[in-house]
Specification:
Helices cover 40% and strands 20% of the residues. It folds into three domains: 68 residues, Arc Repressor Mutant, subunit A (Orthogonal Bundle); 137 residues, Nucleotidyltransferase, domain 5 (2-Layer Sandwich), CATH 3.30.420; 149 residues, Nucleotidyltransferase, domain 5, CATH 3.30.420. A five-stranded mixed beta sheet has the order 6-5-4-7-11. A hairpin with a 4-residue loop joins strand 5 and strand 6. The protein is α/β, with parallel strands linked by helices and 402 residues long. The relative contact order is 0.14. It is built from 13 helices and 16 strands. InterPro entries: ATPase_NBD, ROK, WH-like_DNA-bd_sf, WH_DNA-bd_sf. This is ROK family transcriptional regulator. Belongs to the ROK (NagC/XylR) family.
Length: 402
Amino acid sequence: MAIHSTTRTDVNRSAILARLGADGPASRAELARVLSLSPALITQLVKDLLADGLLVELEQAPSNGGRPARMLGLATSAGRAIGVKVVADHVAFVEVGVDGRVVRSASEPFDATASTFIAELVERIRGFVAAGDGATVLGLGVGVPGSVDRPGSGVVDSAQLGWTGVELGEALRRATGLPVVVENNVNALAVAERLFGLGRSHDNFLVVTIGTGVGAGIVVDGAVLRAASGGAGEIGHVPVADDGPRCSCGNDGCLEAFIGEAALVREARERGILPDGAGIDALLAAADAGDGAALEVYRAAGHLLGRTLAGIVHTVDPAFVVVLGEGTAGWRHWAPGFEPAFRSHLLRHRRSLPVEIETWTDESWAQGAAALVLATPFDAAGSAGDQGRLIRARFAGQVVSS
């Protein structure tokens, strides 16, 4: 059955499933209140979800004199999603329910540059799926640091992984028999933020990640901006200096080449703060201990991030910014440079723009990838292609061969 809806409506459908999965049965009126949606819209969305077999009507709720409210619950076959985060040296997994809550997680070493990387990745994914409790797996969401042509096809180009034109989606579908959706890892985090986080109440926001790399997920009118080739949001490769250090992408002077994890460590070693072999944890420890030179490395990084991000804000006009990633463990040291640079480079009427710093664990990347699966059944843009149809069928309990 064809679904005609806006992307915002699509996210609201997923939000209904997530809310019922998290809190149990609810009435239409309760859903309208907690999701800040009109009763008329809730009525239409629920009607569609009932027709799709994703919701069921339960017993009537007690009434205080008015018409008894019919309670709504998830269809028992709602299932779970598997999220996979792929980076150069390891892969992280999560299994989540439709409410986004993590059921289990794991991490395995992985060499993205090995000649057998596809076979190794397949082996690890199969092992994680097999270790589950037998619940229906709706699909596999994979987040990668790089550009993806379309989530439904999953062809990856990644400087960090050393991959060019890797047909990851097709390889994983063939090997696992599951629907597979592949996306840039920061875009996946933006989907998760839209579905489960602060983005539920805003149609326009910016997710920025700092850590090994620097990236952004741009949400405009409720949808993640992918643009021509799926590469929107690569702010780590904004050129900030003509004669800067070489970036992993092959160009000189990119933002990431100055403030990515490897760049901070390199700067600290060159300034004698760290000995050879010491890494980002040692730099953070030095800053925590009050080492002035270590604090200056972070302050300078924060300053450059703030100045660059002000330009991005002027370009996309978000309602708020969320900062995520491994680098946020040291945000207290980034902030003294970031805040004045960011605010002073914004137009006056934007200087109060909220910037939220969220706590971080490694499995957060994988949770973002799992959110791709949970949002895909209502993908109005069609970027998930046939994989969206297969995941939607699994939501409704009709397991279809992929």
